[in-house]
Amino acid sequence: MFSKACEYGIKAMLYVAIQSQQGKRVKTGEIAEKIGTPEAFTAKILGELVKHEVVESLKGPYGGFYLEPSKQAKVKISEIVNAIDGDSIYKGCGLGLSACNASEPCPMHDKFVLIRSQLKSMLETTSIKDLAEGLVSGKAILLR
């Protein structure tokens, strides 16, 4: 459903959020290692998230990526998706056709309209804090 970059971005943000709740800043290498992603690709994704002001970073020996705990409830998953993948997930054809639209629909068009609407609503109302709390409580997992 999401691009690999977007999946990595969400995982990275979850790891950063949890570490930030403990007052820590984390380096790219640590994030990549803990979430099981390539370091160079993770750095590129985090750079996009910084550029879109989804996460903060500080350079230097005591630097790293962080997300103030007070801001975690405000950062919605839709912001991560938009920063990395744009809004194509809400507009693209379910079958990947380029000419699919309301006037010339693919066989799945009408079903996907509802699904995309529900997905957008869920992403816009779910915060990074919501997901991080699930991980910390043990109700969810990030890696097996």
TrEMBL record:
Q: InterPro entries, alphabetically?
A: Tscrpt_reg_Rrf2, WH-like_DNA-bd_sf, WH_DNA-bd_sf
Any GO molecular function: DNA-binding transcription factor activity
Top-level taxon: Bacteria
Gene Ontology cellular component annotations, sorted alphabetically: cytosol
Q: Please identify the protein, giving its name as recorded.
A: Rrf2 family protein, putative transcriptional regulator
**Source organism per UniProt:** Belliella baltica (strain DSM 15883 / CIP 108006 / LMG 21964 / BA134)
